[in-house]
Amino acid sequence: MTRLPDKLLSRGVVEVIIETELRERLASGKPLRLKQGFDPSRPQMHIGHAVGLRKLRQFQELGHQVVLIVGDWTAQIGDPSGRDATRPRLTAAMVQEHARTYMEQFFRIIDRSRTEVRWQSEWYGDFKLENALDLAGRFTLAQMLAHETFRKRYDEGQPLTILELMYPMLQGYDSVAIQSDVEFGGTDQKFNNLAGRELMGQMGLPPQHVLLLPLIPGTDGRKMGKSFDNTVDILLSPAEMYGK
Fold it and tell me: 109 and 50 in contact (C-beta within 8 Å)?
């Protein structure tokens, strides 16, 4: 392991939870398992995703293990973060088709030979009702309503399904399944990332650290996101990308 670069935890990073502890783990020289999940609700990745991938690549170059989670189960729910309405559910076949396209795009930035790719169906394929109930019982309604999106929709009397409330728990369980050391995500993922940290502690594992990355604006000035159709996609031609 090489010396920790001075700007590794500051340049292009909004917040590190908990920075002092993460610095100690990095200084120990032990390779860490770095988690980032992607929700293949649409087939294209955009340059906002690349912010996290570039940071992962920096850690990867230092000898740490990147674990990319393909959210083939949670994509069928749809990440409720920042959404004012329930997302239409996708079929498993649609998610699988999108995920195949994602694989090509991951490795335009991340070193394929030093990456572990995991699919949620590895652990959720055999998930029983008792496992789901155990997971749901580890969080309170008050904790879920601390989620800004959930609270806003609840206060405004908008539909909010139990399935959507499960999303942070399911994403959090991914961290348990792969025994993540650090999870990477945009600032809009803070609640979901902390759910993983909370769940790991409850299940007797060292809680993961969280590294939050900035969101970049889309073509309409809002945060770049597939839901807003304002993205600059990674697979665009150079002319199209420059134009956007």
Answer: yes
Helices and strands, counts by H and E, the chain: 10, 6
The 10 Å Cβ neighbour count of residue 104 is 11
Residue 100, C-beta contacts closer than 8 angstroms, at least 6 positions apart: none
pLDDT in tens, 180-218: 999 999 998 899 999 999 999 999 999 999 999 999 888
Contact 198/172 with Cβ under 8 angstroms?
Answer: yes
Query: Cα separation of 80 and 99, whole Å?
Result: 19
Global pTM reads 0.84
The structural domains of the chain, ordered by start, are 15-215 (3.40.50.620)
What's 14's DSSP letter?
S
* pLDDT tens-place string over residues 14-51: 999 999 999 999 988 899 999 988 877 776 788 888 88
CA end-to-end distance (rounded Å), the chain: 39
